[in-house]
Amino acid sequence: MKINKLVLIALTVGLTLTSCSNDDENITNVASLGNYENGILISNEGNFFGGNASVSFVSNNFATVENDVFKNVNSMLLGDTAQSMALDGGLAYIVVNVSKKIEVVNRYTFESLGTVDSGLINPRYMAITNGKGYVTDWGDGSDATDDFIAVINLETYTVESTIAVAEGPEQIIINENTLYVSHKGGFSSNNIVSIIDAASASVNTITVNDNPDDMAFDASGNLLVLCEGRVIYNSDFSEITGHTLGSITKIDTNSNTVLSNLNFNLGDHPRSFAIHSGNIYYYLSGGVYKIESTTSGLPINPIFTESLYGSIVIKNNNLYSTKTDFTAGTGSLLVFDLSTNTLVETKTLKVGASKIYFN
Fold first, then answer.
1. Domain extents for the chain?
2. Which fold does the domain 36-306+351-358 belong to in CATH?
3. DSSP-derived secondary structure for 16-50
4. pLDDT at 347 over 70
5. Where are the alpha helices (DSSP H) in 75-163?
6. pTM above 0.85, yes or no
């Protein structure tokens, strides 16, 4: 564990009132929290074992793009494979997978505040509740029995305990004191969602279709889980011998039971989804599809076609995603207007551009 700053920067907004004239007219100036507020943060994985993970910033009006933000501010490299980020209060937690650590920064200035640098083996995603961080960790990829959730003390930046779970915990999402973890399977495959009581650390599971990954709550509080399904290979992985079904699975968070499965066609393996205005948007085979809230079947045609790499997120009727070219060593942020389903912005990022967060 390393704490780089003993005194954290105050993250409150200061208001200054200045008298302009005798008519009691005042001008209110709002102090800036830092160079990276009011914009978009993108975690760039970098090349696996390349040590070139990074974070990019794009302003909300798309006029400003700054790559290598962590390096620019702290004069040091971020590490190997930036898997994801978690934002909480004035802080950002950058999960650096291959480097087995979490970098903690002021989310608005990106000044380093500390590092969780022990107790992690293969960290993936992080969520925060009741003053503690919960990090999914695959453990050793050759051992299907050592996977866990690391419980992070956010005052000392240390792993204070672990919760043993089944193989391949991936995404993690929180509903009050309950943690939901999708088990994509790590280096193998799995088909469960773990339900963890944060207070007692008790673990129960729900069986879903193969390779559950992205999760989100709908307007009714149900948990939607995107199950990608599995491609089955022969013993030497030289030939595809079959597929299992992908689905969007709906789970009742009161009873923690499966309410329904919207199954994809056999051989279709969706990746990444988002909910916006009651509609579901998902990526499949070079296109983004929309399931309207008034329909129960799968759409036939995509609303637009594009080869995407990273997550899908939606804000202000714009859909954001990324693409990357590992050969060329570049990445891009893509912004689509959902009113017209057209590409309206493209910004150059770093290689492995993947997850998107609004700051």
1. 36-306+351-358
2. Methylamine Dehydrogenase; Chain H (2.130.10)
3. EEEE-STT--EEEEEPP--TTSSEEEEEE--STTT
4. yes
5. none
6. yes
